[in-house]
């Protein structure tokens, strides 16, 4: 008797561009399943994108352009993009770009190696934008494949870059890490704690899951606004009455990733670090402190406390995410350069890209032409 014959029927590969919140909600389960298979960061989760889209200001100047690659009814690739209109130019960028520290596409690990290239080709052909700017790319980001001449239509490396600082090493405990710090660093930590303890009862703790988050988030927003005003900056994440921060933090909580560390003095929060834990890494998303206690460096004390807490629990890395702030650099044992890419579509986009290139070349030339400071002779 002949053995039964099994026919392998190939699935139909299709592409789609999501432009509405309704469709975004419909494909969320398939997207979540892909996110799990691909081991994506929270910044590529559909709930993160949906929370941002639901709460982002100036939505009339934005449009979703989320590319999907389907293999039958199985989602195999996502590149979550959106446009933002600036000075008449439609800029294609990461969806939730302003609140996402690392950008990348999601691709199923067992999918066609050309899936991301074909998906990008579809996004590009569908249009709806003039200039493309994809930034905050880790060295191992999958979208680097789009820079290959055979794959990356319209995309080229861009001169803009950022830095990400991390604490990582062979320590078996927080105390072991603490002892590797300089004598001055250890003294500053102890001095700061002692100074605060002279004013009241000082407590470091991780918020419990059933602790109310709203008062803490209100405190964070208030302290952040003070800091932003003092440094001449702005962020819609902390605007009074803005729902953005609460929406994003709810996503972290619902996914079981949220870790909020606080430093309290007589039950008053004087420093906060809103973190999340993924892939064996503690990631610091939002940090702030009360400037009234600046002399004691409560932010520094809290950071050193949660670093030790993380190492004591076997986490391999503490990632401060984007930003080259000095307080991050002082404690980091590793820095990671984040790159960017730019492209154009249509005459308007190519003119904008050319203007950006000319501006960069001009600034670089002026920098090289500036006379160097006279060298100070040896005594």
From TrEMBL:
Among SUPFAM superfamilies, the record links this protein to:
Acyl-CoA N-acyltransferases (Nat)
InterPro entries per UniProt = Acyl_CoA_acyltransferase (IPR016181), BioF2-like_GNAT_dom (IPR038740)
Q: Which residues form the BioF2-like acetyltransferase domain?
A: 183-329
Q: Which domain of life is it from?
A: Bacteria
Q: Which Pfam families match?
A: Acetyltransf_6
The protein here is known as: Protein involved in cellulose biosynthesis (CelD)
